Amino acid sequence: MDIAGFLWAKKSKDEELWLSLPLHMADSAEVATFLWDNYLSKNVKKIISSGVFLDGAAICQDVAGRVFRFLACAHDIGKASPIFQIKTNFPPGQTDEILRAGLERSGLPLKSKYDGKKQAKHAIVSHMILQRHGFDKSVAVVLGGHHGVPPTTYELGSLEAGSYDPACGFDSEVWLKVQEDLLHMALNTADLTKDEAVGLKFSKAAQVILSGLVIFTDWIASDTNLFPLLPLNKSGADSERRLDSAYRELDLPEIWPLEQNWDDLYFRRFHIENPRAVQTELVNTAQDCLKPGIFVVEAPMGEGKTEAALAAAEILAYKAGARGIYFALPSQATSNAMFERVLDWIKEFESHGERFSAHLSHGKAHLNEVYSGILESSKILIENEDTDAIIAHQWFTGRKKSLFADFTIGTIDHLLMLSLKQKHLALRHLAFSSKIVIIDECHAYDTFMESFLLLALKWLGAYGVPVIILSATLPTGRREAVVAAYLGKKVEPLGENSAYPLIIYSDNGILQKPIEISATSKKQRVFFEAINDDNILPILDKALQDGGCAGVVFNTVKRAQNFYSLALSHFGDEDVSLLHSGFLGLDRAKKEGDLLKKLGKPAPENPARPHRSITIGTQIFEQSLDLDFDVLITDLCPMDLLLQRIGRMHRHDRNRPKPLKQATCYVIGADYANIEPGSTAVYGKYPLMKSIAALPKSARLPEDIPALVAAAYSDSEPNLPQEYLEDFENAKHEWEAEIKDLKSRSKSFQISTPLNKNRKNLVNWLDISVKDDDHAGEAAVRHSKGDSIEVLVVQKRGKSLFLLPWLDEGQEIPKTRPNDKLAKKIAGCSIRLPAIFGKKWMVVKTIESLEKSMQDEGIVDGWYKSKWLKGALCLILDENRQANLCGFTLHYCKNLGLQLTREAE
After folding, report:
1. d(CA 877, CA 883)
2. Residue 208 per-residue DSSP state
3. Residue 193 · residue 33 · CB < 8 Å
4. Is it true that the peptide bond before 330 is cis, omega within 30 degrees of 0?
5. Which of 119, 406, 612, 810 is paired with 445 by a 20 to 30 Å CA distance?
6. Using one digit for the tens of pLDDT, what is the confidence trace for 5-16?
7. What is the pLDDT of residues 418-431, one digit of tens each?
């Protein structure tokens, strides 16, 4: 055995097993070759080959694959250092002693202790070994960041100064020689000469993708179930054979077998015989593109944008070399609904025995019955049992690996986190670089989130990832911003284009002429009438005198709850229902399901539409709930969101009561002098005043949508009564100041752009990092005035804990670890506390109070052992379903949801 063969890469704590460093390096190289040949998408290979330069010229894909193999093989070369090799298990055992004795016999000098435990981490030592051998920093940093965070200038400077040379082995000829030998091993494995390798330079995009790939490769090669440890008396093994065994165990899904057969695509995938104009144009445009880029599709509700996007995604995936999609939506509820639609689409693929990995990506995915069914069976039952082609691959269900599932449907947060300084960010970039990205309801994202979205689009544009953006009501400013971000350059003003529907797209990096389309959905005139709170009940009495289904939308949960109580006493509980975000997850899911059956699209499986109903809710009616009201009453909100709410009125063709055949929207608070304070707190006074100014007496929909949105968002001053001009100017200044502050705050934890010339490598890329979990990431990319801390709600009766009485008859909950079935039900009792508890001055106090109550009940140790409950916070209600929290009283009611009052009240 040569000296390098005595170095260890991994060792067992409990058994006399190990993996030598050369063998782990060889395993990693084999994994890299396998991934390159069998798994990676064409687009990922293109990003690397076009971003790796040898003496200033881009390399071919064959050389790119060998460069990846070299990096994968060399990633742990920093473990060939004294400070790493003296590491022991805790407590130290016989394996440590045997391996140490072997090292000393080999002639490698070792001390019992070295300075530099924090500074000389093996990933950074790997970086330094390459740098000391003349490699460019853009190459070395890929190894330096293979544990998730690239090194900082300070960290590299500490080792460059020579202060920790003994720890790194840089002061010893023997250690330097073994490092050099391992480096040549990695070069030989990849069939590269050292002269070639030191001439390599990577673009910023290539550095990120290669960093993600090295992490991905290391994770596979480090899985001891796939690549087992060996007895201590054995240092080598055949890595190719080890890979063959690992491949069979890993069983990765096949690459999407795309074919250039797009005839009758809508019929074959969705059973649509006559596609709408928007659907036809988007597919035709995708087919005509040589190098497809960004597609912005603006069309009214009901035009089939979802089917259009999925059909176009197949074509774009073929052209761009993608192996799946990410479908981003604004909320968990919309993601759940889309998940089933995407599964239906996948089932229609022409299957030749392939299996595809599907993943629902949000914090409550495990509560989705369809998704959890896939997880439990590892495949879903499809009507034709010979086409069981959809799996939720177990290897992809871990938090960080899950985005690698080929068909991922989830909240927008995971896309926004492309811009967030967070550990293992390169993995997220790698996952998205293999996909077609579809962003639904782009109008639903506020200024804070938009800042993250625009930066994410810059990176997707740099990777050549095709992006489809869908919206019914997209302001011109946002349309220009998303296109310019993706293209990485300023674009000519798109103007207040009155055409609608509209497709704006780029090909080969150039913005093309917009495609104007005729809407095929039904056209209607909607009348608007401004009212106040006192008018609501009389209007409902009159409108529903012959029956009908009314929707009443408020901007705050408290207003919705107050009016529900009022309507209940006036109309009776059979006619009135309430839906908002302040219900437990299980309660809300049931309410949504019941409403969709009563008020959704006419279908044989749905019961008859009620003779009379009043559905009271909040902003959740704006987002993909297919409800159909005969008349709408709504709080004032920004114009694009108002139009979204109107999209839930007269949505489907049906026979309506005679007084309600004309669509009418009553707008509460459309009065400059009496804008409702809660609405101002949610949206800001300036956008609401602009909305009032743009509110017409009637509008033709969908034709007038662009003009209405443009009027509300243009920079021109609205025609206001003289007495409100000063108020308007003050509101404008406050709004502009808030927007400036939000943009400034959003940049605090954002990565640099791919085109930043001052940062040519990833050193310092994640110098300030957000906590490495999805909850922290989601909080960092959202600025919500309506959400705060998520809790699980249970009830204490006597000395025991129970589910709420109407959930499984109030089943008792053990204080030890509950079984998985019960733990899942507890996890379904989730709710977000009112916004006050998420304020800076309140959040720590709130969390501490919740944790103390959990500790007092003795549930933390047992519950946190459950995968469903680990890390959760619990709100424990008393026998009256109340809890005191930080000076407030919280009460949960099955019909009203969570209510908040100050204890003094």
Report:
1. 5
2. H
3. no
4. no
5. 406
6. 999 999 988 889
7. 999 888 899 999 99
